[in-house]
Amino acid sequence: MTKTAKNSLLGQIWLNRQIYILLLPGLLYYIIFSYVPMSGLQLAFKEFNARLGIWGSRWVGLLNYTFVVRDPAFWRAMVNTVTISIQRLIFQFPVPIILALLINELNARRYKRVLQTIFTFPNFLSWVIISGIMFNLLEANGLLNNILQATGHEPVGFLTSTKLIRPLLYITENWKSAGWGAIIYLAAITGIEMEQYESAIIDGATRFQRMIYITLPGIREIIIVMFILSVGNIMNAGFDQIFNLGNAAVQNKIDMLDWYIYRSTFRGNVDFGFSTAISLMKAVINFIFLIAANQVSRAIAKTGLFV
User: Domain of 247?
Assistant: First the structure.
């Protein structure tokens, strides 16, 4: 950087110093709590010794990664994670969009607010509470199986069926988070100019046509941004949900990387270097998916999360 450019940059910072002062607390927060802890990632390349600490432990290079790729349980967790995440994109990503479009079409403002409150409330429940509700409804002696038995049908192992456990994950996640996710799209809808709707009404467009040809294109950019973020989060298949709803009977179908990391860290032969190596690998893969999704979006839709 030349001296002129440096002076110009410092001059611009001083000129906009009020804005930079407002940014400073947030910047310090991320530096202290996000970037400084990243120094612990070196543990992925070390044989951790609690007595010596992270910095004093012996450097072993890529040895931890050789152990990771040789473990069949890792590849099972990897395949399950990618599969569940892709299915979440298919069965979960469109639901908040559809819900926002439907809520927006309601004319009764008070009724709309009531529905928004009802749909948003489950988001504030923890997965511990939701799993308790699901157990009471779906376990062998749960409400639903009692109804089936009372009507002469055989009970169904909803929570122990390898065929039903994944659909159950998607249904419960939609129930919990669709209302909260719809808020983002409803906020984007409010930015659409009303003149477009008025012109469409004059031209004889039906409500459905206005929704498809005005509302949906009007929130196109926010949909793309949210999709890119979802793709960039593809290696996180929902640990809290799976940890609370899962059991040994369906572990092979829902065992995912975060659960695998949890077992490697807190169960059996504890190896922090091994589990850190998996976590770092997962983060790198997420980053690659994020960049790839952004590039594809820029090539196809001419917009993206960042340049």
Answer: 62-300
